[in-house]
Amino acid sequence: MTGGGRRYVVVGAGAVGGTIAGLLARAGRDVVAVARGPHLEALQAGGLDLRTPLGSWTVPLPAVGSVAEVGWRPGDVAVLAVKGQDTEALLDDLVAHADPSLPVVCAQNGVANERRALRRFADVHGMCVMLPAVHLEPGVVAAFGDPAPGILDLGRVPSGTDALDEEVAADLAAAGFSSHPHPAILRAKHRKLVMNLANAVVALCGTDALATDAGGELLGAVAAEGEAVLAAAGVDVASTEEDAVRRGDVFRIGEVEGVDRGGGSTWQSLTRGQGTAEGDTLNGEIALLARLHGVEAPLNVRLQQLVGRAAREGWRPGAVTPAEVLAARDA
Ligand SMILES: NC(=O)C1=CN([C@@H]2O[C@H](COP(=O)(O)OP(=O)(O)OC[C@H]3O[C@@H](n4cnc5c(N)ncnc54)[C@H](OP(=O)(O)O)[C@@H]3O)[C@@H](O)[C@H]2O)C=CC1
Ligand SMILES: CC(C)(CO)C(=O)C(=O)O
């Protein structure tokens, strides 16, 4: 247990949340996971099966089925690690059970979750999550970063850092992550957003399609469209050089025995048949800004529409070709 009564309530203990909760717990921090369905049952029955290139462990992890069951107390910090499409429902629940002064850290991709949280909570922190991880089986999470599992910088939203950021970063560092307080976290998160516009491509077209000429063309065009829209909207985005400097050689993608990495988080949503996907939060951010600023974003609009439909209708990765998506640009 950590001193000072700090407790990390990690809501959504999947790929990212499971890795954060599991490694914080292994480092002796006080952690509660909020999970649901068969994953909750597996956590409660046998703990978290956490696999990494550095080793695999069964981590005993206190787990409850909803934020109503947490028993919130002073010193708690909520770490949101659900996908963006689940944030609104979660926050509605959270606001009914936790004090409005609860610090909320959004360990999620995109930049929409912090705004959702700020409508209900005053003390909101964004986290830029560079943590390649997989959760395809109840109770099991694999994180591929080696030697650090990932980079988890955080800061207040809209800007600045405070004592909480310092404390969380120190606890994450003790758990093995690279984590720094970041005074302009949304700047970093917008750079990550540009990268995550590819999530829908990987999910729809499959990982093999990325090695094709059409796949490469699509990935480049989707990112370029995102950059152009963010520039038209006047958004402050970290440069690729700044991003590369921060990544440095903190981690590379390692091997985890017995686990195939497959694709990113949206690919995992389709592979698991989750029924929803994160397109509205990721490509939808570009669609939103394009509409607000009078510019076009046909590729991101198409990806948002397709990945939502794919999740609803149970399509598997590979159901769509890059050429089919590129056709939206040429229509
Ligand atoms: N996976 C990765 O490599 C990376 C992911 N990210 C980002 O991290 C965030 C989380 O993604 P990821 O970890 O992949 O997602 P996962 O689907 O693996 O984990 C999210 C978990 O949250 C659960 N959940 C959703 N709503 C609730 C709720 N109200 N109460 C309890 N549990 C809930 C989900 O359950 P259920 O399965 O039932 O839906 C799921 O188990 C996303 O924003 C993603 O883009 C960032 C970097 C890398
Ligand atoms: C960068 C990447 C693809 C790492 O897995 C990611 O952020 C995601 O899966 O959402």
TrEMBL record:
Residue span(s) of domain Ketopantoate reductase C-terminal: 185-308
Keyword Oxidoreductase: yes
EC code(s) of this entry: 1.1.1.169
Keyword line: NADP, Oxidoreductase, Pantothenate biosynthesis
Domain of life according to the entry: Bacteria
GO molecular function, one term: 2-dehydropantoate 2-reductase activity
GO cellular component, one term: cytoplasm
Pathway entry: Cofactor biosynthesis; (R)-pantothenate biosynthesis; (R)-pantoate from 3-methyl-2-oxobutanoate: step 2/2
GO biological process, one term: pantothenate biosynthetic process
Catalytic activity: (R)-pantoate + NADP(+) = 2-dehydropantoate + NADPH + H(+)
Keyword Cell membrane recorded: no
Ketopantoate reductase N-terminal domain ranges (all copies): 9-149
Enzyme class: oxidoreductase
InterPro entries: 6-PGluconate_DH-like_C_sf, 6PGD_dom2, ApbA, Ketopantoate_reductase, KPA_reductase, KPR_N, NAD(P)-bd_dom_sf
Family indicated by similarity: Belongs to the ketopantoate reductase family.
Known function: Catalyzes the NADPH-dependent reduction of ketopantoate into pantoic acid.
Name of the protein in question: 2-dehydropantoate 2-reductase
Lineage, uppermost ranks: Bacteria, Bacillati, Actinomycetota, Acidimicrobiia, Acidimicrobiales
